[in-house]
Amino acid sequence: MDGPTNVSDVTKDPHQGNDLATPGALLEENSIVPSFARSFPRNGALDDLVRAFASGNYRKVHDQAPELASRATDPAVRDAARVLLERLQPDPLAKIILLAAVMLLAVMATWWITEARSHGGAGPHVRGGVSESTKALVES
């Protein structure tokens, strides 16, 4: 039998024996710290912002992190607040990909418009008419 041999193996604490669960990785029960924030110093205001970040309350982090970074006396707390703010910024690669997609769409739309005009409009298949070559083929 390859599975666990007793019940204690199945009900084991998921954080026990896990290299990612370092001391201080849990701020409180049911509040897990993101991996980049595990080395942050312990500070009440900073812990509150880390909890907000982990729960998805980015507005709170965006509003309160600059204030914490400006008034904190500990340089490690200031740096941690700045790191939280940086994590809210969009990925530069995503910006480039979005810009490339918009440019590609503009080029394709321009090409489609110029091709339609060079062929006398939208063409018979769009207007509901029959092209001359189709008429000749049907008549023969």
Can you give a write-up of this model?
The protein is 59% helix and 4% strand. The protein is mainly alpha-helical and 140 residues long. The chain has a two-stranded antiparallel ribbon with strand order 1-2. The longest helix has 27 residues, at 92-118.
Entry keywords:
140 residues; mainly alpha; two-stranded antiparallel sheet; disordered N terminus
The neighbouring-strand order within the major sheet is 1-2
Instruction: Tell me the distance between the termini.
Output: 78 Å
Oligomeric state of the chains present here = single chain
DSSP helix fraction:
55-70%
- Identify low-pLDDT runs: 3-26
Helices and strands in order:
Blueprint: H1 7-10, E1 26-28, E2 31-32, H2 44-55, H3 58-71, H4 75-87, H5 92-118, H6 124-127, H7 132-139
Antiparallel strand pairs: 1-2
At a glance:
It comes from Pendulispora rubella. With 140 residues, this protein is mainly alpha-helical.
